[in-house]
Amino acid sequence: MHKFFDNHLQEDKIEELLYPAYAKRAMVEAVPKYRLPQKGMPPEVAAQLIRDELMLEGNPRLNLATFVTTWMEKEARELIAETYDKNLIDKDEYPKTAEIEKRCVRMIARLFHGSDNEKPVGTSTVGSSEAIMLAGLAMKWNWKKRQKNSGRSFDKPNLVMGTNVQVVWEKFCRYFEVEPRFIPVVAGSYVTNPEKVASYLDDNTIGVVAILGTTYSGEFEPIEQIHEAIKDFCLTRGMKIPLHIDAASGGFVAPFIHPELKWDFQLPLVESINVSGHKYGLVYPGVGWAIWRTESSLPEELIFKVNYLGGELPTFSLNFSRPGSQVIAQYYNFLRLGEEGYIQILKSMQSISLHLAEKIESLRIFEMISRGKDIPVICFELKAEEPFSVFDLSHRLREKGWQVPAYFMPPEAQNTAVMRIVIREGFSRDMADVLFHDIKTAVEELRTHTLSRQPRKSLRFIH
Q1: Are 73 and 336 in contact (CB under 8 A)?
Q2: Which pLDDT band, with edges at 50, 70 and 90, does 12 fall under?
Q3: Is 450:388 a contact under the CB 8 Å cutoff?
Q4: What's 126's DSSP letter?
Q5: How far apart are CA 260 and CA 115, in angstroms?
Q6: Band of the pLDDT at 450, cuts 50, 70, 90?
Q7: Could you report how far apart the first and last alpha carbons of the chain are, in Å?
Q8: 293 to 63, 90, 243: CA distances (angstroms)
């Protein structure tokens, strides 16, 4: 074989092996990366191999891109470790875990102004992605029933939402053959315009999605106005179109620091709500919740009953076996914090967000899109021509350890590039001041570095 290929084959073989420096003391041969090793190894060596590789990842506490919780108390971590082996789906074997899940559902339903007379129902999920799929399926099946009962066709369902929705809504539409009808957001206004909603509705609309805390900017959509637009349309057409609230980010924020806001089951057309426990529910990933206004909101056809785990088990989920630890961690937070604890923590995060937003704005080069008033999320764009982009700034901050994402806004506003900072528990005011210092320094460095690379007309080159 040609020497070039020989060398590359040898390099490929080397790349497929792990050669940790300390292993000379505990290992006699390298470990394959992509196939099972022939022999095992001592537990402490296997653990150290993995720890060494994970050292190269970013620090979760400095990851300001994610909404997902990166800190919990020691007692919560211990409870999670003690309950990894409890299979949440096996309610016959673990009845207390099932009871805890039921308590959480009732607590959340009451938090969202669910009425005991209407008997709200719900379930825990693997994050809001599964909760959204379940809520979407419920909307589709309920619409299908209404169409059948009215003698109308049911082969062209559509779902109305803004282009600012999280990608899981696009997944739902594609996976379950629903036409997505996107209401464009535009530059300078990154939430759904209520005045445009009615023009997207018709007899085939299974529901409308409104967002309590958008992924793009952290803003609350004008949910009460969107609700009124749907209600007016339904009154003129003699029909009912449900409103689903994607409260993944804001569902555990609004009840505590925006109690006056009407967005939940107080609005009669709100049929279902999803919320992420692993965001501002303050639980490690992954746990979400899907809540329906009443039992009739959840089609019986979507509930399966199985008996091969012991007793008869009703289940409505896309997943089956999963640990009960996240649900137990959610219940721990509910007991540990109570309403006052959540209010205190969320107001603290809001205060840090507003403080950091004010500091960033003081640089006079950024246009603030959101300051953390709705949920603790700051979003901003460059407002003037600079010799660098937000992507350059994001990259420079990454060199300092911070993960601050830069991205383009949705279609119709795709020329707007922004940065977003998500404030979570564990991010202190002192850390915010350090981040601001690093942003300010990075801006100065980028300006100097970029300008120094500009060719100068008066400069003569001597060969």
Answers
A1: yes
A2: low
A3: yes
A4: S
A5: 18
A6: low
A7: 47
A8: 35, 26, 11
Q: Residue 167 pLDDT > 50, yes or no? A: yes
Q: What span, in angstroms and rounded, lies between the C-alpha atoms of 339 and 108? A: 12
Q: What are phi and psi of 455, to 5 degrees?
A: -65, 135
Place of tokens 């940065």: 419
Write out the DSSP string of 258-285.
Answer: -TT---STTSTTEEEEEEETTTTT---S
Token pair belonging to 70: 């990166």
In terms of Cβ atoms closer than 10 Å to its own Cβ (0-12, 13-18, 19+), residue 33 is exposed
Helices and strands: H and E segment counts in the chain: 12, 15
Residue 186 · residue 412 · CB < 8 Å: yes
Give the mean pLDDT of 144-164. 94
Return the beta strands (E) in 176-247 as ranges.
179-183, 205-211, 243-246
**198 pLDDT above the threshold of 90:** yes
H/E element holding 300?
Answer: none
Instruction: Name residue, tokens 């006056």.
Output: 260
Least confident of 89-103, 214-228, 256-270, 410-424: 89-103
Which residues make beta-bridge pairs with 378?
371, 421
Q: How is residue 2 written in tokens?
A: 């040609």
Provide the 10 A C-beta neighbour count for residue 80: 19
Q: What does the block give as tokens for 241?
A: 């179109």
Q: What pTM did the predictor assign?
A: 0.90
Query: In whole angstroms, what is the distance from residue 435 CA to residue 149 CA?
Result: 59
Nearest alpha carbon to residue 287 among 127, 130, 168, 133: 127
With a cut of 60, say whether residue 339 has pLDDT above it: yes
Question: What confidence category does residue 31 fall into, taking pLDDT thresholds of 50, 70 and 90?
Answer: confident
Q: Cβ neighbours of residue 110 under 8 Å, at least 6 residues apart?
A: none
Q: Which residues contact 303 (CB under 8 A, 6 or more apart)?
A: 314, 315, 316
Q: What is the dihedral of CA 97, 136, 115, 249, to 10 degrees?
A: 70
Phi, psi (deg, nearest 5) at residue 120: -60, 150
pLDDT at res. 320:
78
